[in-house]
From TrEMBL:
This is GAL3A protein. Signal peptide: none annotated. It comes from Spizella passerina (Chipping sparrow). Gene3D superfamilies: 3.40.50.880. CDD domains: GATase1_ES1 (cd03133).
Length: 225
């Protein structure tokens, strides 16, 4: 029987929601791994809405659950309804929506607050010793909720100009967590906490390398499950 995995989204679109390629890659790798997936998102208003063509703010309001339903092809539930007892693992793709809607990292950095349902979901899976997968910026959720854990967001220096957000690693360290430097096609497994992370679009890399890195994260999550 396939593993039961919950996928948590943060909207639809890299600048104000979930990164679409990351969400899709995660779903493809989970499908290949024989997993049974259910998708969730918090039923809250987005922090902001970005015109992805112009890269500028749009004067409108959108709902995270409604927007995430685009990625889920309509088959999605309110995150408040997620019960960790019904799943073997949980995975969070990245995108600025994680840092804007699931927590306030985009504005407050290491002093951010985490959405109550995101926090309770992470705590529930961690307490049950069930694996948590995170990619791109979403490892900051674990860094904030689980001091002392190990995560990767790629490199801690802007190596060859490929890691423009390398300072995120320093902020993670300031939270009392250990940042592990990894390449884009790799993931890191914190065995003690069952947290698996990969940098994805935190690295400027060809799409297939990002896809492969997410694949290693999904494979490790399914192994731990």
């Amino acid at each position: 029987m396939g593993k039961r995995v919950a996928l948590v989204l943060a909207g639809c679109g890299v600048f104000d929601g979930s990164e679409i390629h990351e969400a899709s890659a995660t779903l493809v790798h989970l499908s290949r791994g024989g997993a049974e997936v259910k998708i969730f998102a918090p039923n809250i208003e987005q922090r902001d809405v970005v015109n992805h063509l112009k890269g500028s703010p749009a004067e409108e309001k959108r709902n995270v659950l409604v927007e995430s339903a685009r990625l889920a092809r309509g088959n999605i539930q309110d995150l408040a309804e997620l019960k960790a007892s019904e799943f073997d693992a949980v995975i969070f793709p990245g995108g600025f929506g994680v840092a804007k809607n699931l927590c306030s990292w985009a504005v407050d950095g290491k002093n951010c607050t985490v959405n109550e349902h995101v926090n309770s979901t992470l705590q529930a899976f961690h307490s049950a010793k069930k694996p948590i997968g995170l990619c791109c910026i979403s490892p900051v959720l674990a860094a904030k909720v689980f001091p002392g854990c190990e995560v990767t967001v790629g490199q801690d220096k802007n190596v060859d100009g490929r890691f423009p957000d390398a300072e995120t690693a320093s902020a993670i360290a300031e939270l009392g967590c250990k940042h592990i430097c990894k390449n884009v096609n790799e993931s890191h497994v914190d065995k003690a906490n069952k947290i698996v992370t990969t940098c994805a679009f935190m690295c400027k890399a060809p799409l297939h390398e990002i896809f492969d890195g997410i694949g290693t994260m999904v494979q490790e999550v399914l192994k731990l499950a």
